[in-house]
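Good morning C.,

I know you're traveling, so I'll keep this short. The sequence:
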Amino acid sequence: MLGRMSDPGKNDSLAALAWLVEAGADEAIGDAPVDRFAAKRPLPAPPEAAPAPVRPAPALPVRPAAPAPDLLKAADNDSIGSAMNLAAAAASLIELKAALEGFEGCALKKNCANTVFADGNPLSRIMFIGEAPGAEEDRQGLPFVGRAGKLLDKMMASIHLDRTGAYITNVLNWRPPQNRDPSPEEAAMCLPFLRRHIELVNPGIIILLGAVAARHVLGFSEGIMKLRGRWLEYRVGNVMVPVIATLHPAYLLRQPAHKKLAWRDLQAAEQKMLSLGLLEKNAAVR
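The tokens, ready to paste straight into the viewer:
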């Protein structure tokens, strides 16, 4: 006697129900059975929305066009040419200072309180050249009067110098914002005044303080660690003046371990000054 065949559709339905129970389904939601295997009817397309009204774009404020690079370059060249003419016309340090105070070609001047010219004794023929004024220098109108200046005084005292026996100035006569390095354009506008400054002082020796001074006075791109302690020369008229570069006092305040390097440079400068008759021997042995 043949056994009754089972209904495969019924077995599939029971298997699906058992899976749903195991998955956590415990109640039916609809009142009428739903055929999950029937082909789904496509949903009716949503009614087309009416096009949004086109609004005119708001008018943007009109900004003035930036000057073309060629125009900026021409303006820089005019300022540099003006600086060269003013510097060349100065026959004394007094006239050079007045020319600097009247020069309006460098944008740094607009945000500064003072033009920082120089300090010390120009007759000593021992010339220190730093980088640029800081905040305290801008307030007082004198170079090296802040923390770095106090350290410079100690450095000079170590080789029996003070401000009555030396002359101090900077590459820049106005403070760059946040004491940043000057741009090439800013330095180029101040260099004619510095070169004339050196000519009028006619130093017997020049001591450069820091990388910026070494770069712009000597025209070398090497770092200060490679330049420091080396004897170089700067032409003043028909005379080659000995030049030595050392570390800037502001750098030494941040890196006091390098004071020993600056001390070696200062000792070399002292011996050179003695050999040139710029420093009295009795002062060097006090």
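Safe travels,
E.
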